[in-house]
Amino acid sequence: PAMADSSSSSLSSLLGDDERRTSPIPYRVKPLEYEPPIECKCKKKAAMWISWSDDNPGRRYLKCFKARDGGCDFIGWFEGPHHPFVQTLLIDLRDAVWSLKKQKASLRQAVAELVEKVEGLEDKVDELKEENARLDGFEGEKEYLEGKVERLERKKKLMRVLCAVLFVVAVFLRFG
């Protein structure tokens, strides 16, 4: 039996092709874990998948398990179509799940970018702390040098006073 599996153009704008091909929910039963087995043209158990197209949302179908790797062209529906109300409901739910997954991926990307920025800021803070520690070392050196300058200024004043005294003594001795 042939099957039509198309997607709406609204999905194309919402998601990329890879995202549209993935199931919006995890499979509860693995593709080969159904009973009774149905064989494909290769005489192997066919895999059971779930369609998420707009035409057949949530509808299970059978396909050759090796179809992508050179298997046969066997494909068929496992069950009939859903009631139109259920079909519309499944499409809305599928689109909501895909939209939430896309939002989640965007939020994860935003968080990763923010973490990267925070790490960069942490590195900058570490650099500033190192610079501050280095400057703190200069602060002690600055205080030492300021004290030395102050002592030299006092010695300079004392030398001026001594020079003045010596001048007065020399004048007194000469004219005395």
UniProtKB/TrEMBL annotation:
GO terms for molecular function: zinc ion binding. Residues 1-24 are annotated as: Disordered. PANTHER family: ZINC ION-BINDING PROTEIN. It comes from the Eukaryota. Keywords: Coiled coil, Membrane, Metal-binding, Transmembrane, Transmembrane helix, Zinc, Zinc-finger. Residues 104-155 form a coiled coil. The chain crosses the membrane at residues 158-175. It comes from Eragrostis curvula (weeping love grass). Residues 40-81 form the GRF-type domain. This is GRF-type domain-containing protein. Residues 1-15 have a biased composition (Low complexity). Signal peptide: none annotated.
